[in-house]
Amino acid sequence: MNQTSRSRKKEISPLLISLITIVALIALAVISWNILRTIPSRYLSRFPTFVQHLVIPEPESAVLPSVDLPLDAEIAIVPIPSPTKSELRPTSTPIVPATPLPEVAAVVVDEVIATEVVDSTIFTQTVTPEPLATPLPAYTRIENITHHQQDWNNCGPATLAMGLSVFGEQLTQYDTAAILKPNPEDRNVAPYQMADYVNQNTSYNALERVNGTLAELKTLLANGFPVILEIGLDPPGEVAWLEWYGHYVLAVGYDDAAEEFWVFDSLIWDAASLVDQNSPLGRSFPYAELLAYWPQFNNTYVVLSEPERQAELAVLLGDSYDDTKMWQASLERNELTVQNQPTNAFAWFNIGTSHLELGQYEEAVAAYDRARSIGLPWRMLWYQFGPYEAYYQQGRYNDIILLADATLDGRPYFEESFYWRGRAYEALGNVQNARADYAASAEFNPYFQPANEALARLDG
Question: How confident is the model over 113-123, as a mean pLDDT?
């Protein structure tokens, strides 16, 4: 080999090495990317933020698929008929005492200025409930609660475990989750599921209600009833990119002088909140903050109680203890809100759900359409499923498929969406797709009876 050949070989070798290195790095990156995509998001949440940004699927839109509805289109308000039970989202049924309710020496508010914050606009309304024995104290607190820091998307099981600790039940969030969400990827536990868990698996009682007020909440707390609140949540600071979520907190007290509730919150964002939320007293939750975020879930709450206090609870709740009156009041309250704020999508959604629970399917669909035309968070159907049932009752099966596709895209973690998409496919005559969705729903949550019943019907 002459000198020229040896020189050329020396020139080529570093180039080959560089090319091989680049190819190897690309191959490694592709393999790593595919491996990361197979990791459940509950584990990815522990990775650096830039990794989550790269791997966790982003929605195509920041809002649910919309409908073309003029904002000036009128939505009719019709008389309230007798209610029809929701097929999938039942409100936990009040336990009616067998004997007449006794007189209860309870403390209630005798006049409240109810303030609502909607799109930064404050509306104030004077509400005068029927007075009972004693006015509310200015300060109260339920003590001896065990705090649980939630695991990934586990605020429902963690908050319920905290609530039951008031009665001395020392359950973990994994004890409650075993029934509430047997698949850890499940993104939501509905309020009625928590109420059913308590009523069916413990010696205590739970009642799910909507349309709660600050006065009602304070009355329950002043009488020693712990209350789970379902609220909206905008992640703070560096995690704001995650966008709007639903969340649960356990209300245990209030302080009128400071204008704040005290809650136990399972969600720990950072080191500062770690100290605050692990406090034996819980953390503060300003009245104004609750008034801003509670209506995003129609002021839903679950009140926990000992079985011997059911009669007392019925007296304290008054009309709110009755399903028909509760949903009628919810409808009227949200209609008042949209009169002042016609572009409040959450209020329109609440109107839809109120109509749905009262058996008014056409009106429910019109209200849900209005909410979608304004714009709902893309996670909305992670938590509330009324539009599926309303559209089904009105034969709008393609809307169900559209919404379920958007909700399940990249996150096949919602048994309710699988189920209702299956119902839509079945109604359209596509039995193969319907069976596949029912099977996916039942496999994801074996305790979800609607899917099991649908499979049995198809296979029967």
Answer: 39
Check if CATH label 3.90.70.10 holds for domain 112-321.
Answer: yes
Query: What does the H/E/C string look like for the chain?
Result: CCHHHHHHHHHHHHHHHHHHHHHHHHHHHHHHHHHHHHCCHHHHCCCCHHHHHHHCCCCCCCECCCCCCCCCCCCCCCCCCCCCCCCCCCCCCCCCCCCCCCCCCCECCCCEEEEEEECCEEEEEEECCCCCCECCCCEEECCCCCCCCCCCCCHHHHHHHHHHHCCCCCCCHHHHHHHHCCCCCCCCCCHHHHHHHHHHHCCCEEEEECCCCHHHHHHHHHCCCCEEEEEEECCCHHHHHHCCEEEEEEEEEEECCCCEEEEECCCCCCHHHHHHHCCCCCEEEEHHHHHHHHHHHCCCEEEEECHHHHHHHHHHHHHHHCHHHHHHHHHHHHHHHHHHCCCCHHHHHHHHHHHHHCCCHHHHHHHHHHHHHHCCECCHHHHCCHHHHHHHHCCCHHHHHHHHHHHHCCCCCCHHHHHHHHHHHHHCCCHHHHHHHHHHHHHHCCCCHHHHHHHHHHHC
- Helices 431-444 and 449-459 cross at an angle (nearest 10°) of 140
At residue 111, φ and ψ (nearest 5 deg) are -160, 140
Q: What is the pLDDT of residues 8-21, one digit of tens each?
A: 555 557 767 777 77
And the tokens for 270? 């950072």
Sign for the CA dihedral angle at 409, 412, 416, 418 comes to positive
Q: CA-CA distance, 208 to 227, in Å (whole number)?
A: 10
Residue with tokens 């409930």: 129
CA angle 105, 250, 83 (to 5 degrees): 70
Per-residue pLDDT tens for 369-391?
999 999 999 999 999 999 999 99
The domains of the chain are located at 16-55, 112-321
